[in-house]
Amino acid sequence: MAMKLSFCSIHFVSDQTLERRVFLSNHVIHIFTVSSFGGTATALQEAYNSEGTTTVLQKASKSEGTTTALQKAYNSEGTTTAIQKASISEGTITALLEEYNSEGTITSLQEADKNEGTITSLQEEYKSEGTTTALQEASKSEGTTTALQEASKSEGTTTVLQKAYNIEGTATALQKTYNSEGTTTALQKAYNSEGTTTALQKASIIEGTITALLEEYNSEGTITSLQEANKSEGTITSLQEEYKSEGTTTALQEASKSERTTIALREASKSEETTTALQEASKSEWTTTALQEANKSEGTITSLQEEYKSEGTTTALQEASKSEWTTTALQEASKSEGTTTSLQEASKSEGITTALQEASKSEGTTTALQEASKSEGTTTALQEASKSEGTTTALQEASKSEGTTTALQETSKSEGTTTSLQEASKSEGTTTAL
């Protein structure tokens, strides 16, 4: 487009100032220049009314450094550009802002380079495509930091990345989301002088699955945690594993709704001891099993509990073995038969204790046996009751270094008979009662 020169004027304002004015058709240019001993400053302003364009330029050069500012606007095209740059003895700063309205694009850049390091910030947005990107990076003598965020509206996706390098270690964070697919992924990883940490989480809505993983390596050992949930299958799995210089710990839990089964496993192995815990429940079979075992340098403890609801049976076993003594406990209950059995046995360096109790409801009989043997003497107690026969028998015997005591008592209700036997023998004498 040809422009006709309407007027031009040059004015010498002072010895250090020069101003020029140029007038065109709908076009005005102002130039202002200052030159001094300290440096140079230049200002330019240009306007195009017919095209809707404005340009502003300012530049300053001093002994300390340089500063540049540029701003440009296109109204008809919907474009705005801004540039700012500063270079001084300490460092460099650059700022860029660019906007396209017709295309729906915005770009922003900021960069700083100093003796300490570098900082870069970039933000870009596409409105027509529904995408936004943001990048930030910092590099210093201590380390580096990078952050990236990107969003796509048309695809429903968001990505976030953050990474940091420093003298201590490295950290990385990644998060990504798919709205249309209903999936979210988050990853975080850190390296430091002490060790490593990794965290991963993923969720899929249309598949109904959630997975979370946490893994950590440090100077002491390793920790791993995994959790997964699948809604369509109705299954939840949780795993935790830990390795340390002292020992190992493992925990597993799984639940399946379709099968109505739950399994929990926990295991700990250390140089001093070992612990194992297992719990399993099956609702379709109405069965529950729990196992716990501990093995230490001093001894062993085992506990087992199992329950069958459909059969009405419960079994509990507990066993403890130590260098000093041993304890065994067994309890079993059968509802259909109405029978309960309980066994307890303790063996110590001082003596032995045994207790047995059995109850049968259908027969109405209860049997209890207790026996104690110590270095001082022996004690035996037997009690039996039969409800259908109405008979009770009790036997008690005690043998000590001082003497012997025997007691027998029997009662029969149907026959109306009672028998009592008592005998005592001591160093002083003997007593017998019948």
Folded structure, characterized:
The chain is mostly beta strands. The protein is built from no helices and 34 strands. It has a 34-stranded antiparallel β-sheet, with no helix packed on it. A hairpin with a 2-residue loop joins β13 and β14 (169-178). 0% of the residues are buried. The model is unreliable at 1-15 (pLDDT under 50).
Radius of gyration: 45 Å
Low-confidence stretches: 1-15
How would a textbook summarize the main sheet? 34 strands, antiparallel
Give the CA-CA distance, first to last residue.
141 Å
Structural class comes to mainly beta
Total of DSSP H or I helical runs spanning 4+ residues: 0
Name the beta content range: over 45%
Q: What's the helix and strand layout?
A:
Elements: E1 7-14, E2 17-24, E3 27-35, E4 39-48, E5 53-62, E6 65-74, E7 79-88, E8 91-100, E9 105-114, E10 117-126, E11 131-140, E12 143-152, E13 157-166, E14 169-178, E15 183-192, E16 195-204, E17 209-218, E18 221-230, E19 235-244, E20 247-256, E21 261-270, E22 273-282, E23 287-296, E24 299-308, E25 313-322, E26 325-334, E27 339-348, E28 351-360, E29 365-374, E30 377-386, E31 391-400, E32 403-412, E33 417-426, E34 430-433
Antiparallel strand pairs: 1-2, 2-3, 3-4, 4-5, 5-6, 6-7, 7-8, 8-9, 9-10, 10-11, 11-12, 12-13, 13-14, 14-15, 15-16, 16-17, 17-18, 18-19, 19-20, 20-21, 21-22, 22-23, 23-24, 24-25, 25-26, 26-27, 27-28, 28-29, 29-30, 30-31, 31-32, 32-33, 33-34
